[in-house]
Design a protein that fits this description.
Blueprint lengths: L4 H15 L12 E6 L14 H16 L3 E3 L9 H10 L3 H18 L15 H15 L1 E4 L4 E4 L4 H5 L18 H6 L2 H9 L4 E11 L4 E3 L4 E2 L2 E2 L7 E10 L5 H7 L7 H11 L2 E10 L4 E6 L10 E4 L6 H4 L5 H13 L2 H6 L7 E8 L6 E6 L11 E4 L5 H10 L7 E2 L21 E2 L10 H15 L2 E6 L5 E2 L12 E4 L2 E4 L32 E2 L2 E2 L14 H4 L12 H7 L2 E6 L7 H14 L9 E6 L3 E11 L4 E3 L9 E6 L4 E2 L3 E2 L1 H7 L7 E3 L8 E5 L11 H8 L1 H10 L7 E2 L5 H13 L17 H19 L3 H17 L5 H12 L3 H10 L23 E8 L2 E9 L4 H10 L1 H7 L6 E5 L3 E5 L1
Parallel strand pairs: 1-2, 1-24, 12-14, 24-25, 26-33, 27-31, 34-37
Antiparallel strand pairs: 3-4, 5-6, 5-9, 7-8, 9-19, 10-11, 10-13, 10-18, 12-15, 13-14, 16-17, 20-21, 22-23, 26-27, 26-28, 26-32, 29-30, 34-35, 36-37
Helix pairs in contact: 1-26, 3-4, 20-21, 21-22, 21-24, 22-24, 23-24, 23-25, 25-26
The chain binds one RNA strand through helix 10, strand 11, strand 15, helix 14 and strand 33.
RNA sequence: GCAUCUGUGGCGGAACUGGUAGACGCGCUAGACUCAAAAUCUAGUGAGCUUUAAACUCGUGCCGGUUCGAUUCCGGCCAGAUGUACCA
């Protein structure tokens, strides 16, 4: 008889559920600890062994913190709006809510198997009206706010109106779409529609005609982070630029604060760096170049020091000034070029980055510093969305300008000489010198300065002369917030005579209406246009829905107060739980969810709804668990399969085989293989010895590669405790690592060994009440100290090793003493809670181990009386001697002299000098 | 191109603020138990040299530096992973 994990785990999971052991209460006497997993989108495929990795890690921390006396909040929920359920609905007509519900139930079943200590009473689902009420509420708050740079926070839009009424729009220091200027009288004369349009320019959630990423295959627009390399992240469909009227969130207003906040949170350096790059702050200068027709051309540059090296100007094809400056003889050619450039798809443009194209407008601009005439060109390498869509080109010191100059035979003038170089003949150059290090030459007032100083001096100079100013640019774009889909949150917006208005808060939630088919209408309207009688007093609602990230922005706050009907989270509750102490999830959300969530949290902080302005204090990205795929080798054009070792003798195709058909990682079960699929029924094999050996490779774990390890099967076979320990044992949490099927046996052995430690051959429990020996206590306390340290560092793989060493040593000592076992059970309970609970009960405890006190580490059991000193003789470390720590310096010398391992190296020579560094090293010079 | 991270046995991976590299696990080898297998247990397992043992030598991607001493710190290269990119 051995440890029966099925029985034991079932028993404890039932008891935890029945007694609601993990329910978090707002207990203000204890310090709080909020540990959160990124809630999953419940896909139809269910979980594979990669998913639970983060859940297990967070569960270990949650259980550990409970035993450390914290009041732990550890909730779970579902990000339930999403494309797959909608696409399934389009195909089958089944309401996405039904699919979603089914998938959630499946997820829950799988999660429950793992013995995770979630407080399920706080579960949230983004598609639940009582939840999306607050998603809509947040949207209304954004709609009713603007961002003031003087106060450096969001303020109610009503506070802006007096300034507009007074005609001070042009003096406002606020975030806006475009600068505005109108008089008090003009405002008074504006129609309602016009006033609404003006306010839209300032609202944090605003409607605007914008160039968007349109994905025709998905029938919707996408945010920038949902598009990679010109195709959609979901589905990989081509995406084109298109101008449409869309809701957006003015996240750009928060660019500086989003950047600055990164300094105060404990995230991995790489993740912070991704966000910094995405925000893309660059300091530089805005400059005005006069055109020959008298108009001014605004440009942005980070290299004001190279102003004297500018030899031409470039405008983006969308630039509004092009029409008025193009000379008559160039008009036709310029128009043709612009048409060509605009019709190029995003994908073509990205694929042909190296293709240099452009056209001369026939006009010239005047360099404000030296009065030189610079030809103005149009080229698509200058982007409309960044800076002012126009640049001064310095081919000598910018690789893109250089390529352009070479193609169109424009002059290249060197104005910066890198350290240790001389001025060169630029006609010989193969590439530009982009480095920001060096000395400025040929540049009037800044000649001789270092690049950094030159930039500063130029900016001061242009500000003085009124031809420009120092400024900062961000790459971050506002977040496009509407989707032309059904399965999402409806906007709490209706149109009265075409003017968008927000529903009042009491009218929330605005329920998602039922419709018959989930496709866009014949006229290309979003699916919600199909809803019958769906309006507010006869005024139509907005037919868009919110994007996937809408529901996840503030979900962490909702867990704090999930049943509150009057607030997203009550002030009192939020004051207690505050923000998330530890957040675990994948790094794929770096520029999506994690950025938007920070933005929304800062906004809610500004309007006084929450007490902190960062959502996640500490973030850990768990690595991917990769799969080990197996291959068989089919001889080309036949149905014969050759074993791995012999495959080079034939021409073969490698085919993935399901890992369940393979034993011991590489031996193919021929019968199962033949039965797997019809095409293999008549397969013939060329064996090695009497076996068919499969090839293998480490790949992403995926259904289509037949390498998925199913957690349900593993729990059934080995138990949840073993799976939990093994997932942690695989390697460092943040690293991606391959799943090794055989490795789990080692952990399974450990569990059995642990059980045997205090069970006799007949599986009868027995502990000794004898006091533990010094040695046994040392073993225990070494484990306590190590595990505590490891958990604090999230180094769970080494904790598991520590348990193994500990149990091995105790087995050797035949130690089954109560005073050792009791603390050990607690120590191990966060990793393997079921077996720990069972022992805890066998030891006579009535209460669950969940709230037992974490054992106190006591250094006194480990105190060393001796220390191993390295001994260096004539500068070379030769040996180590063990010395009593209490020895004096003279005592050390005597001990060294006596130690034969040292004597050997002395060659009978006398000691000339003896240097003793306490607790470090003994140096001897002979 | 730029940025971040990572390079240690056959494999996954340990090594506290620099101090006897390779903990723990897998795999492999040998042995015990067994009619046999599974399970379990015991021993061995970086490389070289050596009949054996002991001893010695070399070993943490490569080159160099600091130090009595470097997987660890510094500089330069190489490789891989991830992110990002006509962002002026």
């Amino acid at each position: 008889m051995e440890y029966n994990h099925r029985e034991v785990e079932q028993k404890w999971q039932n008891r935890w559920r029945k007694e609601q052991i993990f329910k978090a209460k707002d207990n203000k006497d204890k310090p709080k600890y909020y540990v959160l997993d990124m809630f999953p989108y419940p896909s139809g495929a269910g979980l594979h062994v990669g998913h639970p990795l983060g859940y297990i890690a967070s569960d270990i921390v949650a259980r550990y913190k409970r035993q450390k006396g914290f009041n732990v909040l550890h909730p779970m929920g579902y990000d339930a709006y999403g494309l797959p359920a909608e696409q399934y609905a389009i195909q089958t007509g089944q309401h996405p809510a039904i699919t979603t519900e089914q998938n959630i139930n499946r997820y829950r079943q799988q999660l429950d198997l793992l013995g995770l200590s979630y407080d399920w009473s706080r579960e949230v689902r983004t598609c639940d009206p009582s939840y999306y009420k607050w998603t809509q509420w947040t949207f209304i708050q954004l709609f009713n706010s603007f961002y003031c740079y003087d106060a450096n926070k969001a303020l109610p839009i009503s506070e802006l109106i007096p300034a507009l009424e007074g005609g001070f729009a042009k003096d406002l220091n606020v975030a806006c779409g475009k600068p505005m200027d109108f008089s008090a009288q003009q405002w008074a004369d504006f129609s309602e529609q016009e006033r609404s349009d003006v306010l839209m320019n300032y609202r944090l959630a605003y409607l605007s005609e914008a160039m968007v990423n349109w994905c025709a295959d998905l029938g919707t627009v996408l945010a920038n982070d949902e598009v990679v390399n010109g195709v959609s992240v979901r589905g990989g469909f081509p995406v084109e630029r298109k101008s449409m009227k869309q809701w957006s969130l003015r996240i750009t207003a928060y660019a500086e604060r989003l950047l600055e906040g990164l300094e105060r949170i404990e995230w991995s350096e790489s993740l912070k760096e991704i966000q910094r790059n995405w925000i893309g702050k660059s300091k530089g200068a805005t400059l005005f170049f006069e055109l020959e027709n008298g108009e001014k051309l605004e440009i942005f540059t980070t290299r004001a020091d190279t102003l004297f090296g500018a030899t031409f100007m470039v405008l983006c094809p969308e630039h509004p000034i092009i029409d008025s400056i193009t000379t008559d003889d160039r008009k036709a050619a310029v128009k043709e070029y612009i048409t060509w450039a605009k019709n190029r798809s995003e994908r073509e443009r990205l694929a042909e980055v190296k293709l240099v194209s452009g056209i001369f407008t026939g006009s010239y601009a005047i360099n404000p510093l030296n009065g030189e005439r610079l030809p103005v060109w149009v080229a698509d390498y200058v982007l409309a969305g960044y800076g002012s869509g126009a640049i001064m080109a310095v081919p000598a010191h910018d690789s893109r300008d250089f390529a352009f100059a070479r193609k169109f035979n424009l002059p290249v003038r060197q104005v910066v000489v890198p350290e240790g170089e001389q001025e060169e003949d630029t006609t010989q150059w193969q590439e530009s010198k982009d480095s920001k290090e060096g000395t400025v030459i040929n540049s009037g007032l800044i000649t001789g300065l270092k690049v950094k100083d030159a930039i500063e001096k130029i900016i001061n100079y242009i500000e003085e002369k009124g031809i420009g100013y120092g400024t900062t640019n961000y790459r971050l774009r506002d977040a496009i917030f509407s989707r032309q889909r059904y399965w999402g949150e409806p906007f709490p917006i209706y149109y009265e005579n075409g003017v968008p208005k927000a529903l009042s808060e009491e009218k929330l939630p605005l329920l998602l209406p039922d419709i018959e088919t989930y496709l866009p209408t014949e006229t290309g309207e979003p699916p919600l246009a199909r809803a019958k009688d769906w309006n507010y007093n006869g005024n139509p609602y907005d037919h868009n829905t919110m994007p996937g990230f809408a529901g996840s922005n503030a979900y962490y706050l909702r867990y704090e107060d999930p049943h509150n009907d009057t607030a997203l989270v009550s002030k009192e509750t939020n004051d207690y739980w505050q923000n998330v102490d530890l957040y675990i999830g994948g790094s794929e959300h770096a520029t999506g969810h994690l950025l938007y969530s920070r933005f929304i949290t800062k906004f809610l902080f500004d309007i006084g709804k929450v007490c902190t302005d960062e959502p996640f204090v500490r973030l850990i990205n768990q690595g991917m668990v990769q799969g080990r795929s197996n291959f068989v080798y089919r001889i080309k054009g036949t149905n014969r399969y050759v074993s791995f070792g012999l495959k080079n003798e034939y021409e073969t195709d490698a085919l993935h085989v399901d890992i369940s058909l393979v034993e011991n990682n590489d031996v193919l079960n021929l019968e199962k293989f033949k039965a797997w699929r019809e095409e293999f029924n008549a397969a013939e094999f060329i064996l090695e010895g009497d076996k068919y050996i499969c090839g293998w490779e480490i790949e992403k774990m995926s259904k289509s590669l037949y390498n998925v390890q199913n957690p349900d099967m593993l729990v059934e076979r080995y138990g949840a405790d073993t799976l939990r320990l093994y997932e942690m044992f695989l390697g460092p949490l943040e690293q991606s690592k391959p799943w090794d099927t055989q490795g789990i046996e080692g952990v399974s052995r450990f569990i059995k060994k642990f059980w045997r430690l205090y069970h006799d051959r007949d599986n009868v429990f027995y502990v000794s009440d004898l006091p533990p020996s010094k040695e046994e206590l040392a073993v225990l306390h070494r484990a306590i100290g190590k595990v505590e340290q490891d958990i604090e560092k999230f180094s769970f793989n080494t904790s598991v090793s520590t348990f193994m060493v500990c149990v091995n040593l105790l087995t050797d000592l035949k130690c089954n003493k109560r005073q050792i076992l009791e603390p050990l059970a607690v120590l191990i309970s966060s990793f393997a809670p079921h077996i720990a609970e069972e022992i805890w009960e066998l030891l006579g405890h009535k209460e669950t181990i969940t709230y037992a006190q974490f054992p106190k580490f006591d250094n006194k059991y480990l105190e060393q009386t001796t220390f191993k000193y390295p001994v260096s003789i004539n500068g070379k470390t030769r040996t180590f001697i063990e010395l009593d720590l209490s020895l004096t310096q003279e005592g050390v010398e005597t001990a060294v002299m006596k130690d034969s391992s040292v004597q050997k190296f002395l060659d009978n020579k006398p000691i000339k000098r003896f240097i003793f560094v306490p607790k470090r090293i003994i140096n001897i010079v002979v």
